[in-house]
Amino acid sequence: MKLGTVYWRGPWKLDDRGEPVLDKKGERIPDVSNGGSWWIQYYENGKQHAESAESKVKEHAKALLRKRLNEITAGTFIAPKDRKVTIGELIEDLLKYYRGSGKKQKFADDTESRWTSHLKPRFENVRAEQLSTTMMQTYRAKRLQDKPAASQTTVNRELQVIRKALKYAAGQEPPKVKFVPRFEMASELDNPRKVFMTEEVKQKLKDAAARESLWMRVFVEMVFTLGWVKAGRKDGYIIHDTRRTAARTQRSAGVPETVACEILGWKPGSKMFARYGIVDRADMAEALKRQTKWEKEQAETTTKPLQLAADQSGGHA
């Protein structure tokens, strides 16, 4: 059986008698001036597929046919109907999956919020197969120039929504996409969330938990020790802030980095310790205060012996 063929769909050139005009091989000549295009037809696992090459040049159609046959051989072929799927459709599939899973409503809410706020206007009608790294780089550059400008971390989270939708589509049977482009994520080490819970806030939370029950108090104590992470915002804080607070507290208390990483669930030497052990303005102010105090003590330590020597010298005179 023939693997594939190229054929013309459109008007043919006719002579004055209304007869088809033939080339040297005796084949009819397309009338490209009056519309039409070359099409290809091929088989994949016994199933027939046909699609337009969207070109009036026969060689372009032949090149497309070779490409499709190579994709079938390599196992990367996507049926024409699935190649038309858009990013917007894949996001809808992902939201349906989240909402259909009882425990993933928060993922659905977060995904929908990020999608409708910024991603949708740019990517809704983009075909999944056309998504490129360049498109995402352009999107990032625009978001960083918005008023107010988005942070690199925020843009990372937004693009991760699209990446998750593509990966979910690739994992379906049959897959809706067979290729997920590379997503370049910017470093977040230079842009961490700089929110810590003060001792006063921590104590208020502990007291409120104690009024609920003993177990709730125990839970809150564990949160501030282990830095648990999952919850929404509360009075300007998120539970992730407890992880950040725990890292800084352990660092300030002189806990060895290897021990702190073990407590927080990170590998020894993890960059996350540096990320969460960040310094805020209060830390810098305290450091300057200590430095000033130390310099004053050093100055006093140095001047006292000199003054004593001077006094003793004057006494012998």
Describe, in plain words, how this protein is organized in 3D:
- The chain has 317 residues and is mainly α.
- It has 3 domains: 4-77, no CATH class; 87-170; 199-276, no CATH class.
- 56% of the residues lie in helices and 8% in strands.
- It has helices at residues 58-74, 80-83, 87-100, 105-123, 133-145, 152-170, 199-212, 214-226, 240-252, 257-264, 271-276, 281-316; strands at 4-9, 37-44, 47-52, 233-234, 237-238.
- A 3-stranded antiparallel beta sheet has the order 1-2-3, with helices on one face. A two-stranded antiparallel ribbon has the order 4-5.
- α3 runs antiparallel to α4, α4 crosses α6 (152-170) and α8 (214-226) crosses α9.
- The longest helix has 36 residues, at 281-316.
- The N and C termini lie far apart (122 Å).
- 15% of the residues are buried.
Descriptive tags:
mainly alpha; 317 residues; elongated; 3-stranded antiparallel sheet; two-stranded antiparallel sheet; 12 helices; single chain; 3 domains
